[in-house]
Every structure is written in structure tokens, then in C-alpha cells.
User: What shape does this take?
Amino acid sequence: MNKIDTIIFDLGGVLIDWNPEYVFLDVFNGDRKKMQWFFDTICTSDWNENQDAGYPMAQATEDRIVLFPEYEKEIRQFYGRWVDMLGGPITGTVDILKKCIESKDYKVIALTNWSAETFPIAQERFDFLNWFEGIIVSGKEKTRKPFDDIYNLTLNRFNIKAENAIFIDDNQRNIEAANNLGINGIRFESPERLLQQLKTFNIYL
Assistant: This one.
């Protein structure tokens, strides 16, 4: 096994709790089935990820309203109440991040699918975002996971060898994309599980 010298963290779902349900369960008066239909049909994950890759949120909102005018009010709330979708830190993972940095054994980077328009809100709210050696924000780079471009950009910008890096993400699709480029991947499930998974790479925190 190659010696790991770099740990790359995803942010949303790994270090930061973000969930549109925090807004839309209220919007749909607790009707989880109607809320899920809205996410599957109107404000979909694919649509939101387009903004993560740099498409303007205001234009994306208007595009969706043209398609679904009867849901204009709900569509406008997706980005209009985005800050309410932002929960707190996932403290167990933040503790792991801190230990990785304090060990001084690893280059510690973040790679996130996040709109450049909303990322400054997270930077103001979460001090630990200042701990990283660097952060790749998809919206600033105009590409996103799981496309090869953003992984290669991360490797090149921070002089990382793929085989010496671990990438931690809660999305299996993103892990598989990293694996295809030779980057070791860990699918995040919980902080406790992550500690165990890191041990398989001889990382004891």
C-alpha cells in the first residue's frame, strides 16, 4: 500500500449538515410525499448541481419558473431560503479533521460541489473552513464532481499524487469517479465509521 500523505474532504454531508428538507417540510406542511415529488420533479438534484458548477442561481430560478409557473412561490424559496437549509457542523467529523491537521502528517484539502454564490455564507459561519491548506469550490471552477476535470485540477493545484491521497465523500458516485483516477476513496457514513475506515490506510487518529 502506498503511504498516504494527503486527505481530501468533501464538505456538505461530511463536515457540514445541509438539507433542503429543513425548508420544504415546512413549505409543504409536513407532507413528505409531496416534498419528495417536488425534489424529484421540479427542484431536482441535477438542477441544483448545475448551479454548483457555476450556473447563476437567479437565472436557474427563472428557468424553472418558466417550466413550472404554478410552483413559482416554492421554486423561489429554494435559493431564497437557502441559508435555512444550512444546518450545523457534523462535529464528529470536524474533530477528525482537526486531528488530521494537528498530526502534521498530511496535506489536508477540501473538494466540494458548492455554488460560488453561497459558499461565502458557509465560510463566515464555519471557522474550520479556514483550517484547510486549500479548498476547491466547484462553482468557482465551473465544473463539479463527478467529472474528471475537478479531480485532476485538485491533484495538479496542490501537487498531489493520486495513489497517495484519500478522498472522503458521502456520495458513492463521486467516490467511484475518484477511484477511476487512482485516488483512494472512502464513502462517508458516520464519524465513527470514518475512524475505522481510516485505519485500513494505517491512519490512526
User: Anything to note?
Assistant: The first strand starts at residue 6 and ends at 9. The radius of gyration is 18 Å.
